[in-house]
Amino acid sequence: MVPYKYITSLDNVPHLSEEMKKKLRKVEKVYRFRATDYYLSLINWDDPDDPIRKIVIPHEHELEPWGYIDPSNEKNYTVMPGVEHKYPQTVLILASNVCAGICRFCFRKRIFMKEYMEFVRNFPQLIDYLKKHKEVTNVLLSGGDPMVLSTERLEYMIKRIREVDHIQIIRIGTKVPVYNPYRIIEDPSLLEMISRYSTDEKKIYVITDINHPKELTPQAIKALNLLQKAGAILANQTPLIRGLNDSVEVLTALFRKLSFIGVPPYYVFQCRPTVGNKYFAVPIERGLEILEETKKNCSGLAKRARFIMSHTTGKIEIVGMTDTHIYMKYMSAVDESMYGKLMVFRRNPNAYWLEDYLRAERGEEEVSEEGAQPQEIA
């Protein structure tokens, strides 16, 4: 058994100088820090631009006022604590309010704050809800990270969901294979559980959140392979993050490696306008250029990745551009009459979200996307 530890305070990160710790404590008081000793061991501390460092170590820019605590208005679709039903066929469950590590650009960072603490508490009530909603065919276990839960707790959830006949797909959203691959490698009971409930006709999908090729260590690849051998279907999604993977070179390396190991790219997300995320956001049109250039370098398996904006009104795919216009369409929509609707806007190189284009169409001045001022964690 390989021991691993969760690090929950910058004071316990020996490679940071006391001066740096002091500087970053004001960030840590607002947005929690968490990592594993394994993940921290991947950082080249002599390189200030090390990608693993950028993913998990706080940055002073996070305190710049910008964005919203709940940028996709998930609260509007919450049917009970920790359960969201935004699209008819899909129910999302916040199975945990803990992650193996906390990404600095997390769009759901509110769940790590005591005043929110959003995760499912009454699982029998959830099962009753699922049984009543025959239109639901798939359930997404998210959070937080479901794989941080004990195998016993995770199996309880999956077993109960499998008792609902019309639920065909269970998805598990996780970054554990790269944050803490030993959680998978050293727990055969987890793999046995996956094998038990990922059946010939009802699969378990593991949707990984791998952002940079440096995360794909031999240990991470072994963990991913074990999940595949256990019967899980794997795919990857990542946000496009400034200074991390917003280059054709890095994104090509990530896409290629993922397709080589059988974890094909699935979604590339536009960074949501979440509080603390201004520093990480890439303009939409620049993001589309990067993705299209990346696809030129990849096989068809990697070309399947779609550039997605998870807007409050639905999942919007950014489809393409001309010299003057950008094209988007709804691939999922709260208002089903909007599904597949094509939207055409004049190009705006400074746009980060749909509202930037809508304001321009209305001839309104650009306004700051500021939300609440950063507050210390209660």
**CATH fold type:** TIM Barrel
Number of helices: 13
User: Superfamily at the CATH H level?
Assistant: Aldolase class I
- Residue ranges: pLDDT <50 for 5 or more in a row? 367-374
Over the alpha carbons, how many angstroms does the gyration radius reach?
A: 20 Å
Helix percentage: 25-40%
The first-level CATH class name: Alpha Beta
Nearest-integer average pLDDT? 94
Oligomer: single chain
SSE run: EHEHHEEEHEHEHHHEHEHEHHEEEEH
What profile does the largest beta sheet have? 12 strands, mixed
Structural class: alpha/beta
Strand content: 15-25%
Q: Give the beta-strand count.
A: 14
Commentary on this structure:
The chain is an alpha/beta fold. It has one domain: TIM Barrel (Alpha-Beta Barrel), CATH 3.20.20.70. Helix content is about 30%, strand content about 20%. It contains 13 helices and 14 strands. It has a twelve-stranded mixed β-sheet. A two-stranded antiparallel ribbon has the order 1-2. β4 and β5 form a beta hairpin. α10 (about 250-260) packs across α11 (about 285-295). The model is unreliable at about 365-375 (pLDDT under 50).
